[in-house]
Amino acid sequence: MRHIKPWLAVKRWTLFRIDDRLLLIVIAVIVGNFSGLASVVLNRSIETMVEWLTPLRANWWAFLLPGAGAAASSLFLDKIMREGAGHGVPEVIYAVSRHGGLLRFRSSFSRLISSCLTIGSGGSAGPEAPVVISGAAIGSTIARKFALNDRQRVTLVGCGAAAGISSIFNAPIAGMVFAVEVILGEWKALNIIPVAIASVAGTEISRLLQGNQIAFTHRTFNIHFVDILASIGLAVAAAGSAVLLTRMLRFMAKLCSHSAGPTWLRAAAGGCAVGLIAVALPDVLGEGYAPTRIMINGAFTTGLAFVSITLLAKISATALTLGWGGSGGIFAPCLAIGSLLGLSFQRALVLAWPAAGLANEGCFALLGMAGLISGMLQAPLTGIFLIVEITGGYDVILPLIIVSVISTTMCHYFEPASYYLHELVERGQLLRPGTDARVLSDMSVMEVIEKDCIAVPPDMRLREFTQIISISHRNYFPVEDPATGRFLGMIYLDDIRPYLFDPVMYDAVVMGEIMNTDIETVRPDDDLTDVLNKMDRKKLFSMPVVNNQRFLGMISKATLLDRYRRELAVQTS
Amino acid sequence: MDKSLFHIFRNTPLGRETLLQSIYFCKTVGAYPMIYIPTTTKFLMYFENDVVQVDLDDTYLTSPQTARTHAAQLVEQAGIKPVFFTPKHYTASTLPDIPTHFDFMCCPRSISDLSNKIGLGYIGPRVRRVVQAAPFPVLIPSPAFKEWKSITVFFGGSANAVNALRLGINLGRATGMDLNVFTQVGRRKVDYYEKVIADSGLEKDVQRYVKNWQRFESGKFRENLYEVPHDALVVLGAFGHGLIRDFIFGSKMEMIQSTVTNSMLIVGPNYVARL
Amino acid sequence: MKLTIPEIARCLALPESTVNRWIRQGRMPVKRVDNTCYFSQAALERWARERNLPYCPPNTDQQTCGQPPPEDLERAMKRGGIHYHVQASDVESALRAAADLVPELSDNQRDELFQSLLARERLASTGIGRGVAIPHPRTPATAYAEPARITTCFLEDPIDFNAVDDEPVFVLFVLLSPSVKQHLHLLSRLAFCVRDDTFVDFLKSTPGPADFFLKITEFEKRLISAGY
């Protein structure tokens, strides 16, 4: 045992001190494989579950199925895994911004199971967000095992997310771009290389196990100038739908939080509502890949009115599933909604101008998907690359770019933060690398504190105090009770400067009389952002740091700026 | 008074005992208790290289309206100004982040399983995780409040034991209480332990502060544990090795904690001496 | 190379918590296992230079690396040397003679120093009373004044120096210092000594170098206890 032990302590292997980048690439491959595997497992389990449940769909009580699935997934998350509901991507971004990508191990499988229950039973949600979380958690766990530092761990979290997306869509570029654009928020070679490697590994795993299939088969489209014009209109419509979906989701979540009953019951209610919609429009069920596939092929035969209603129904179903506590992401529903939107848009245009000579509806379905994804995630690159890759078609790239960027911009007017980031931005916790908020959040009060202040007792006379001034470097002097060490107040040199050279005052004034007791103080665990806000509000340049009635030091804007610059230099290079 | 002890308050009689124990500990070593009154049963602790989700059992949420007054009462009786902790950041809306910069943390033997399981020989899985990851020593109070009058350090020669000894010496210095060291001399010779102490530069401190170094060269460890004074705070290092070894061979810590009812201060492998 | 975090923090003149965090976040080319840090010194030095961080290699005297320690009189005086029976008839010749006695200077620098001393003397006399003068250049911080030196010149005959108390000056302390801070530091220490009657009496006895330095050491100790 004694001889094996050193080998078990992975973090001690000297191998790992050789070269960081190489090491990271090797680990990225491992993370990519595991993460890819997770997404294959989820994909297969959903398929299996749908297969099992298909015979039951014929029964009159089939509408209860999504309810039961959502309830089961909610119970599983809440009682067994003890995790919160929701899609979890904000948690990943939060961990990346504040805690160096530390994620719980249980996250690496909890959402897989819960989302499988939700989606497999018919809830309208996507398997992508769960895959992203489990990939990220796998990356984080492996990084922890290897005792890597925060930066490397964050990169591996990105690797996991990238591999998950790559594997589930068989789209390595989209995975890479998604990880960097949405999860990491930092375009640097240091990040991109391992992420790219992990994407390849994840994709390869999925190809090995499931074959190299493209989610939506490729067709050639003839794109004319008129289509590009039409795509502008489509972008606006896509932005509208994205905003509608976001608002619906939020409204449902609010409604849910105000209603009584345990969380699993609410999830069940939402699920059953979806089931009821599905009685009339079965296309809203599940992640919706099958109807999307039909639409791209241009084989969706129902009329314009029906398509439009399905569009609205799908939006409501997604909001009902996710807002009421089902588990899953919005990626796949976005694709389905986007294609429905594209279809309706094209049909409406054809109806208005039959002679315009537009491209066929499959093409517009693609554009709609790109528009919705870009709008929801406010990540235009992810939208563009994803659609190009999952359809294997490059011909639509021009209108695709137009739709994506316009939709992103339009959505930004109504929703300043994307669906994933909204919660974080609201809490002020979106701390992208190299930003002011990030630099300030990384530093702590105790790092910028100045400790060379000389404390004086309250009964000291001005005469003795002048001696103290001559040896002090600072203009502030804390007054402390010599017996208990309690902080009583501050003396500012500026206040007493006029009397310093007046010998009459020397014995007439005691420190306890002239100290300021009504002062703003800082606690050592305060956030520097708050400290700075307080300073700005009260027009202060320095504040004493006091903990449990003890003076610890001063914090001043000058030192803060010095440290801030240093921190920024270290963080951004 | 600038050291802090993190205490999660449980608004039950059992919680009262543990809080009293925490307060006594604080008063003795010169720390102040930082009290957290949980509002959800879950919270996260982000350590340097680990994140631990702690799921408290439901009794922690007993009658939240009286919790604060109860806790404040107990602390004020001891003549300390109560300091309450409010989480600033949340990982998810029901998942507060608890910082880990405290100097001590008080954990009853179990915080996630029902309290009726609490007994000797059982330390809950969450408490183990916390001990494993924590940079601070974890105080595991005896089930009922009892003052301790001396400090006993278990010293078995490992790196963790050296940390425990260092902590024990610091506590002894801070409190002025008697410091005893307990060593079960196993296969190794007595000189080995002396050499470990000399190597870690603690020789002088040991001579100065340790009142009695009990070295047991015979007898079973479990039986010798009777020699630990009933009113001593037990300081020991823990978890120097992996799960599998623990499972097969058992560990000293397990034996100590299942035999001795005293309050224990456990130093985990990630402990960083900050005193 | 192996060091602990406090040691690295000292090398970089940063708080320990910052170094700890930077290592944890992977912002420094340092790998930590438990409490020991492994790094390549060259890499760390380059890293610090690129980010304008001060860095002084471990095991060097921290004092000499960043801030020079405050000079004390004894060392400065030993460097400057003591000269007896210096011939001078007036201020100018005294300064000329003193400038020629300052060690480690080229002839050009001596001229420059002399001009500078003279310029300062025209501004106001450096005779601080009781027969002591502390001539120093007009601008204290000059290139040739590194390291700080105090050249002590006992004059053969006391001369009129336009001192504040009009007493003839019998001893010159030529003070050269590389920075204003050190200049003030040494000046105040010297002034402290001269304020003491016993010291002036001692000087009047034209003590030999050994006795002189002994006295200075004694006064330095007093300076420390007086909180200078």
Concise structural overview:
The complex is a heterotrimer of chains A (573), B (275) and C (228). Chain B is built from nine helices and 14 strands.
List the helices and strands and how they pair.
The complex is a heterotrimer of chains A (573), B (275) and C (228).
Chain A: H1 5-8, H2 20-53, H3 64-80, H4 89-98, H5 107-120, H6 128-145, H7 150-169, H8 172-184, H9 189-210, H10 225-258, H11 263-280, H12 289-296, H13 304-323, H14 331-352, H15 361-377, H16 380-391, H17 397-414, H18 422-427, H19 436-442, H20 445-448, H21 462-471, E1 476-480, E2 487-492, H22 493-496, H23 503-506, H24 511-514, H25 528-538, E3 542-547, E4 550-556, H26 557-572
Antiparallel strand pairs in A: 1-2, 3-4
Helix pairs in contact in A: 2-5, 2-6, 2-7, 2-9, 3-5, 3-11, 5-6, 6-7, 7-8, 7-9, 8-9, 8-16, 10-13, 10-14, 10-15, 10-17, 11-13, 12-14, 13-14, 14-15, 15-16, 15-17, 16-17
Chain B: E1 3-8, H1 13-29, E2 31-36, E3 42-46, E4 51-55, H2 64-77, E5 83-85, E6 90-92, E7 95-98, E8 104-106, H3 125-133, E9 138-140, E10 150-154, H4 159-175, E11 178-184, H5 190-199, H6 203-209, E12 210-216, H7 221-224, E13 232-237, H8 243-249, H9 252-259, E14 264-267
Parallel strand pairs in B: 1-2, 1-8, 2-5, 3-7, 8-9, 10-11, 10-13, 11-12, 13-14
Antiparallel strand pairs in B: 3-4, 6-7, 9-14
Helix pairs in contact in B: 1-2
Chain C: E1 2-4, H1 5-12, H2 16-25, E2 30-33, E3 36-39, H3 41-50, H4 62-65, H5 73-80, E4 82-86, H6 91-101, H7 107-123, E5 127-129, E6 132-133, E7 149-159, E8 169-176, H8 180-195, H9 197-204, H10 209-225
Parallel strand pairs in C: 4-7, 6-8
Antiparallel strand pairs in C: 1-3, 2-3, 5-6, 7-8
